[in-house]
Specification:
alpha+beta, Alpha-Beta Plaits, 14% strand
Length: 227
Amino acid sequence: MEAGLPSGIITFAMRKIRFAKGEFYHVYNRGVDKRPIFLDVEDIKRFYQSMEEFNTKNPIGSIFENSFAKKNKLGSGASKLVNFISYCLNPNHYHFILEQVLDNGIEKFLHRLGTGYTKYFNNKQKRSGYLFQGAFKSSHINSNEYLLHVSAYVNLNKRVHKISDKNLSWSSWNEYVGKTKNSFCKKDIITGQFKSSEEYKNFAENSLVDILKRKEAEKEIENLLLD
């Protein structure tokens, strides 16, 4: 294990945990049988839209129904279920760092997100059945050090998987390094610990190097055990 690198970043906890308000969690899921969940830019845009619109205390029904509510200025309640700290969307999986805002917020939000997006995807592709590989997985981020390192892992996740297609791999990285004025994420808890976006960028890239070294070491150990 690399010195100073918290456990749980590569070998994720998969046990059932109880989510608490004000706590931070790394949650993730992938397509069933590792299948792609985003086939084109329209898909990833729809999922990103779902991340925003389903994150509300009061159910919205569907994104289609919610579009009429917004036009008529009815709204669906401003209270969020979760705060996004960082995210990445890859062709066959996603990672989020979430802060729970309301009781059961994470579970409610991810249920709505998964159900709503699956209906959209299945209708578009004329398929049926599950899209995601069971329930989402999660780990409690129980230290500041862990939070900082896992933010690097999530923000730079496409480098972990060597994904070159930027159209099918989105993340909050540009928010963190000042390349966009988008403020989707509540990132101050992390960026506020650095003097500048450049300092965070250097930290994250160095952290990723350590994470990838550890990942390779674990792979080598696994191969030895299988021999």
